[in-house]
Amino acid sequence: MTTESSAWNTCDYSHNVTFYYNWVGKTISVVWTTRDFVVIGLGLMVCLIVILANLLVMVAIFMNQRFHFPIYYLLGNMAAADLFAGLAYVNLMLNTGPWTSMLTKKQWYIRGALIDISLTASVANLLAVAVERHQTIITIQLHSTMTKRRVMLLIVGTWAVSIIMGLVPSTIWNCECDLDDCSTVAPLYSRRFLIFWAVLNLLTFCIMVAVYTRIFIYVRYQIRYTSRHTSEMRNSQTVVKLMKTISMVLGAFVICWTPGLVILLLDGLLGKASHANTYEKFCLVIAECNSMINPIIYTLRDDEMRRTFKWILCCLCRRSAGQPRKLSSVEIASPQPKALPYQNALLFTKQKMYKIVKKKMKPPSPPKKKNITGLS
């Protein structure tokens, strides 16, 4: 028995993709089924929306001078990651089902690496945006003090980490030398790697929760302080808007990512007993929806972004109709964008505190000299 187990644990790179699927009990469809058509059709439709929506975001940020600030550069990078996720998912949809048996191991690893890179980049960008917003609000600034160089380093670092995570399974962390460690969701992947990847994403989620919670507590404290100087309506609008943003960000992440993360954890912990491959394709579609929801959360709540979207779409309609394109205020360099309501309240607090301190530090005026001679 020991000899047989050690024989299976030796590195044999001659096995093809079908061998690993048969080993974990995952069936490769010989003919197209109704389930395959439904999953692929739904997946391609979601991918089309993801690609178009994020492309529109990138064009809007490039065209409008009001968006040339660090926060919008990060949003543009997140849109690029989500667009890449849409393209990677199209590649997955076109290489699944009965086509899987025709893939070489190299092609199969590339297919999985594209998904890993794109999804890791999307999550990393969500965290980068959360950190930037935290820095901006805590320091009571209209815009982040990060230079363009730091923003570019952050963007490059995000993609570097994503590429490394995508290459790990195909280079050093797979089950080709340990068949008992093969995953049922991704038969060439190691179950331990899937556990690591799922826990890493859950940790990122916890960090985002902590960041936004600290922002909310700080802003609520400042609102209580400024309630004596601002109207109650402004305070209520500030709290409502902040709560809506936090609920949308965290809610979208939980709804879209929790099913996939649970499937990965169950597959990594239980293996074949988890029956994870029954729901994996539907979980992938739900996770991909996060890339479609991100542009809505981070950009469509911005009035200026909505106007830019309308201007771009109108230009496309005029061009298709053969009408000349009209210049808009979007293309003209304009002043800095307006502050958010809670930023206005916090800035008012800072100015008020500065006036109080300056008044206390002002030296007393010297006493007037008495007229000794009595002459006027």
UniProtKB/TrEMBL annotation:
<dbReference type="InterPro" id="IPR017452">
    <property type="entry name" value="GPCR_Rhodpsn_7TM"/>
</dbReference>
<feature type="transmembrane region" description="Helical">
    <location>
        <begin position="69"/>
        <end position="89"/>
    </location>
</feature>
<dbReference type="GO" id="GO:0004977">
    <property type="term" value="F:melanocortin receptor activity"/>
</dbReference>
<dbReference type="GO" id="GO:0005886">
    <property type="term" value="C:plasma membrane"/>
</dbReference>
<feature type="transmembrane region" description="Helical">
    <location>
        <begin position="242"/>
        <end position="266"/>
    </location>
</feature>
<feature type="transmembrane region" description="Helical">
    <location>
        <begin position="151"/>
        <end position="173"/>
    </location>
</feature>
<dbReference type="InterPro" id="IPR000276">
    <property type="entry name" value="GPCR_Rhodpsn"/>
</dbReference>
<feature type="domain" description="G-protein coupled receptors family 1 profile">
    <location>
        <begin position="53"/>
        <end position="298"/>
    </location>
</feature>
<keyword id="KW-0675">Receptor</keyword>
<keyword id="KW-0812">Transmembrane</keyword>
<dbReference type="Pfam" id="PF00001">
    <property type="entry name" value="7tm_1"/>
</dbReference>
<feature type="transmembrane region" description="Helical">
    <location>
        <begin position="37"/>
        <end position="62"/>
    </location>
</feature>
<feature type="transmembrane region" description="Helical">
    <location>
        <begin position="109"/>
        <end position="131"/>
    </location>
</feature>
<dbReference type="InterPro" id="IPR001671">
    <property type="entry name" value="Melcrt_ACTH_rcpt"/>
</dbReference>
<keyword id="KW-1003">Cell membrane</keyword>
<protein>
    <recommendedName>
        <fullName>G-protein coupled receptors family 1 profile domain-containing protein</fullName>
    </recommendedName>
</protein>
<keyword id="KW-0472">Membrane</keyword>
<keyword id="KW-0297">G-protein coupled receptor</keyword>
<feature type="transmembrane region" description="Helical">
    <location>
        <begin position="193"/>
        <end position="221"/>
    </location>
</feature>
<keyword id="KW-1133">Transmembrane helix</keyword>
<comment type="similarity">
    <text>Belongs to the G-protein coupled receptor 1 family.</text>
</comment>
<keyword id="KW-0807">Transducer</keyword>
